[in-house]
Specification:
heterodimer, A: alpha/beta, Rossmann fold, B: alpha/beta, 11-stranded mixed sheet, 10-stranded mixed sheet, 25% helix, binds adenosine-5'-triphosphate, binds magnesium ion, P-loop_NTPase (chain A), nucleotide-binding (chain A), ATP-binding (chain A), ATP binding (chain A), Iron-regulated ABC transporter ATPase subunit SufC (chain A)
Chain lengths: 257, 482
């Protein structure tokens, strides 16, 4: 589904992504871990098309289409969804109106007929229940005055509504209380299918107990330096990143000799 | 981001006024120039009584003595008052019983405006009095209103049929000496609307007038007078559109509102006069004097305005809170794009005891637009326990525009409370990106964000108008991304 080849990207002239390679197939869940500042959110941003990142090298394909050629809204309509690490507040714009606009754009793109107000409300209700999102939040202004955890849950509610192919969740688990983490994870498990894929960016092995990944990758200094299965996450939880860094530095000094 | 910005800004810059067209209807136009004879010509054309001509003359004399105002936050353009024609009336002056009789050209004009009369007529609860250039063309729902004793007609008709009411109230809120533009209006006002709501009557529908400037080189000098007698209620809507012209056109209207004991007036405006092109060529100079007097105890007036058009807007709908426990509100959204200038706000004079006022102003600037909020809150010595709350917010789109606030407070009463809040923000690139990421393109994203920002004001508008205003906001800002 998603194919990232040797992706390099700069921000303000500084190289942040330094040759990322990643293949994600339909039906899979990938976890991306890595120390602060290693480039995880940057990768998500580049995939979503944030314009302050400049792609200097490499390719990204989504089901045979060149993602890097598309505007952010086109990528979204093609089925890329980013649950933001820091969702923004948009005062005065009702959550529901916003979702209605978004969904109708996406449906037009997918050649689906527009939903009537009634159908839309029915769907809203179903998805709210699926991810256990409070109806009163759905009717408020978009993220305005939401708590950190409420914002994260709103991202997952939107995900459920927009039914993307590829969902990238950037630390959606951080800020959630213990119950919310379980609820949100359950919701995501229910949304999983053979046709969609998830990329979970996280610092915590705990999330991966609920949503079991097929692969775990470690992003360090703009590169995927290690890939494995869920055991890798356990190992990181136990030992931290230092051993990896040391190993890598060792390799580097060998390489430069 | 840079690249897209440039592209969008470019698009914005090339965005043309959608309502720019000239309707070809036979006009009856006075010669250009302004002197006592012009004033007599207008008065004679309208078969006015002597007292009205005398009053016009007083206005003209005041106008001759006055200087142009100098305190506004922009350079006053040179307006050559002698190069303007002060009277234009469609030749076909007959009143029409049905739409079929109205000049089809005129109907097409309304269709281009997106306010087809045929549809308006069906819009239940809205009676529309159309002021096309200077003379009212068609008034609907009149009979129903008549039965309730409500008078809703052009001011010329009111002069003929209800001279005692006009004479009693005209010029009592905005005197003929008020300011250059008000004096000019007094001398040469063409037509406008008149509303009288009798004691205890609640007007059952929104009263609505669409103004429109049509003839080339014709200044528009509307005069509106609304009187709500004791314990009555009325909601009045004013909308306007001007065709595209290269030269600048002057619009100097006067609106007077009078609320007697226990009465309430809601006055809403959506202003989308031609703003000029992207380089600031052409466009309407909109110099308007609007003032409401809460004369009686427990009376209430609220102004709601959505200002999206004009090259220059100079407008401060004000309130005189005379009656004890009277209250006033001012809700405003002003948008400036390209080279537009808006200097707008309000003045609220608290005179009676326990008077209350609320000011909510939302300025939006894009392109190289300049937006100033100017407000005065005055607490008189008898305004015991008076209260004011002011919130004025500015939103910037792009970095070539400007937002300014000039709040003034004068209090002669230490029991009065005045609260003021102000914010300035930019449309965040991250907000636009968030919406993009959900499949919404930049233009729609801006529209959503701006409408959300202005919501508190738009909510004050009656339903049909709120929808129109939302569209106008989006239209005015099309292509602007910050
Ligand atoms: N606008 C920017 N200007 C300069 N540097 C930036 C900018 N945005 C991100 N960076 C830098 O890019 C690097 C990668 O940041 P990124 O947010 O991708 O890290 P992350 O892996 O998501 O970290 P965390 O785990 O803390 O969320 C960091 O060093 C960060 O400071
Ligand atoms: Mg991050």
């Amino acid at each position: 589904m998603l194919s990232i080849k040797n992706l390099h990207a700069n921000i303000e002239g500084k190289e942040i992504l330094k040759g990322i390679n990643l293949e994600v197939n339909a039906g899979e869940v990938h976890a991306i871990m890595g120390p602060n500042g290693s480039g995880k959110s940057s990768l998500a941003s580049v995939l979503a098309g944030r314009e302050n990142y400049e792609v200097t090298e490499g390719e990204v394909w989504l089901d045979g289409k060149n993602l890097l050629d598309m505007k952010p809204e086109e990528r979204a309509r093609e089925g890329v969804f980013l649950a933001f690490q820091y969702p923004v507040e948009i005062p005065g714009v009702s959550n529901i109106n916003f979702l209605r606009t978004a969904l109708s754009e996406i449906r037009i793109h997918r050649n689906l007929p527009p939903l009537s107000a009634k159908e839309f409300l029915k769907m809203t209700k179903e998805k709210q229940e699926l991810v256990e999102f409070e109806a009163k939040l759905a009717n408020r202004s978009l993220n305005q005055g939401f708590s950190g955890g409420e914002k994260k849950r709103n991202e997952v509610f939107q995900l459920a509504m927009l039914d993307p192919k590829l969902s990238i969740l950037d630390e959606t688990d951080s800020g959630l209380d213990i119950d919310a983490l379980r609820i949100v994870s359950n919701g995501i498990n229910k949304l999983r299918s053979a046709d969609n894929a998830f990329v979970l960016i996280t610092h915590y092995q705990r999330l991966l107990e609920y949503i079991v990944p097929d692969f775990v990758h470690v992003l360090y200094n703009g590169q995927i330096v290690r890939s494995g299965t869920k055991e890798l996450a356990l190992e990181l939880e136990e030992k931290g990143y230092d051993w990896l860094k040391e190993e890598l530095q060792g390799q580097e000094s060998i390489n430069t000799k | 981001m840079m690249e897209k910005d440039d592209m969008m800004l470019d698009e914005l810059a090339n965005k043309e006024y959608e309502f720019g067209f000239v309707t070809d209807i036979d006009m009856d136009i006075s010669e250009v120039g302004l002197n006592e004879d012009t004033v007599r010509f207008i008065s004679a054309k309208k078969n006015e009584p002597q007292w009205l001509l005398d009053w016009r003359m007083k206005g003209f004399k005041a106008f001759q003595k006055q200087e142009m105002p100098q305190w506004q936050n922009f350079k006053m353009p040179d307006i050559d008052f002698q190069s303007i024609s002060y009277y234009a009336a469609p030749k076909k002056q007959a009143k029409y019983a049905s739409l079929d009789e109205v000049d089809p050209e005129l109907l097409r004009t309304f269709e281009k405006l997106g306010i087809p009369m045929s549809e308006q007529k069906q819009l239940a609860g809205v009676a529309v009095d159309v002021v096309f250039d200077s003379v009212s063309v068609s008034t609907t729902y009149k009979e129903h209103l008549n039965e309730m004793g409500i008078i809703f007609c052009s001011i010329s008709e009111a002069v003929k049929n209800h001279p005692e009411l006009v004479q009693k109230y005209l010029g009592t809120v905005v005197p003929h000496t008020d300011n250059t533009f008000a004096s000019l209006n007094t001398a040469v006002f063409s037509d406008g609307s008149f509303v009288y709501i009798p004691k205890g009557v609640r007007c059952p529908m929104e009263l609505s007038t669409y103004f429109r400037i049509n003839a080339e080189n014709t200044g528009q000098f509307e005069r509106t007078l609304i009187i709500a007698d004791e314990d009555s209620y009325v909601s009045y809507l004013e909308g306007c559109t001007a065709p595209m012209r290269d030269e600048n056109q002057l619009h100097a209207a006067v609106v007077e509102l009078i609320a007697l004991k226990g009465a309430e007036i809601k006055y809403s405006t959506v202003q989308n006069w031609y703003p000029g092109d992207k380089d600031g060529k052409g466009g309407i100079f909109n110099f308007v004097t609007k003032r409401g007097a809460c004369r009686g105890d427990h009376s209430k007036i609220s102004w709601t305005q959505v200002e999206t058009g004009s090259a220059i807007t100079w407008k401060y709908p004000s309130l005189i809170l005379q009656g004890d426990h009277s209250s006033g509100e001012f809700y405003s959204v002003a948008v400036t794009n390209n080279m537009q200038i808006a200097d707008t706000g309000t003045k609220i004079h608290h005179i009676g005891a326990n008077t209350k006022s609320r000011i909510i102003s939302k300025g939006i600037s894009a392109g190289r637009g300049q937006n100033s909020y100017r407000g005065l809150v005055q607490m008189g010595s008898k305004a015991k326990n008076a209260r004011n709350f002011t919130q004025c917010d500015s939103l910037l789109i792009g970095d070539q525009c400007g937002a300014h606030t000039f709040p003034y407070i004068e209090s002669k009463n230490n029991t009065a409370t005045i609260e003021h809040e102000a914010t300035t923000s930019k449309i965040g690139e991250d907000q636009v990106f968030y919406l993009n990421q959900r499949g919404i393109d930049a233009e729609q994203a801006i529209a959503l964000i701006v409408n959300g920002y202005a919501k508190e004001v738009l909510n004050q508008l009656p339903m049909e108008f709120a929808v129109e205003a939302q569209k106008l906001l989006s239209l005015t800002l099309e292509g602007s991304v910050g």
